[in-house]
Specification:
94 residues; four-stranded antiparallel beta sheet; 4 strands
């Protein structure tokens, strides 16, 4: 199992439209093969930041997600609003 944790910051506070895009990303990702968990949380002290908690069956599943249409759509819609620096950690067991 692979666990991925991300803190993503945006150039502006999250708007309703941005939250709808994040919800679509989360729901679509949950339907992907190999997805065990995909949750998005609001940062409690930064109005422009969120956390992703993802769990995947394997690195292959994670990579397919990363290059797949759901992430492509998200980047196309919100990519210009994401700050350049994203904090990310990937861990696995087994």
């Amino acid at each position: 199992m692979i666990t991925k944790l991300i803190e993503m910051r945006f150039k502006t506070e999250l708007t309703y439209a941005m939250k709808l895009q994040l919800e679509a990303l989360m729901q679509g990702s949950r339907r992907e093969q190999g997805c065990l968990q995909y949750d998005i949380y609001n940062h409690l002290s930064k109005a422009n930041a969120i956390f992703f908690v993802e769990k995947w069956q394997s690195l292959e599943h994670l990579e397919l997600h990363r290059i797949g249409p759901i992430v492509f759509q998200f980047k196309r819609e919100l990519g210009d609003l994401i700050e350049d620096k994203i904090d990310m950690s990937v861990a696995g067991n087994g």
